[in-house]
Amino acid sequence: MICFEVYINGQKVCLAGVGDDGVLSVMATFIASSESQRTDFRVGGLIKVDAEIQQQVEWIDREVNVGDDITIKIVESENYDTPMNGRTQYLQCSFCRKKQEEVSKLIAGSNNYICNECVVSCSQVITEGANVGNISLFEAETNPSCSFCGKQFPEVEKIVGFEENRICNDCIDICQEIINADND
Length: 184
Ligand SMILES: [Zn+2]
Ligand SMILES: [Zn+2]
Prior knowledge:
By secondary structure, the protein is α+β, with helices and mostly antiparallel strands. The protein contains two helices and eleven strands, in the order ββββββββαβββα. The model has no long low-confidence stretch (mean pLDDT 90).
């Protein structure tokens, strides 16, 4: 399908596409008034959610300045970047990458999500100390912080997870309460 590969000053900023049913547009808008003036650059479009509903999607919306060089390459591509908003953005567990509809519960932190299944794995790691899949205990020496509450040792007793996906024992307790409350 047709996609737009967009570059600003030689740097690729997005590969935008709307699949087989939608509208894709690239727009530069100059807005002037007595107080100020600015030029905005936008790559966006409309995608069809179902027969009745169209949704606006957007890849780029930023100010551009005098001298900026914008290149739009029309390309054939099977894949394109996920827009910043819109239906193709879905919530998923940061730990196992399962999507919201694949798990029975997905709990949101400030930047992370954890699903009910990973809550069980994490609490198992907290109580037993042994790794479950790629989830393991963080050493206090690495000075990790919980991705959900931001707390560090010794404020929290244990932190488990991997890489940037970390959760403390307190947050796991809260998650378990949320899951149990919903099951009642
Ligand atoms: Zn998960
Ligand atoms: Zn926490």
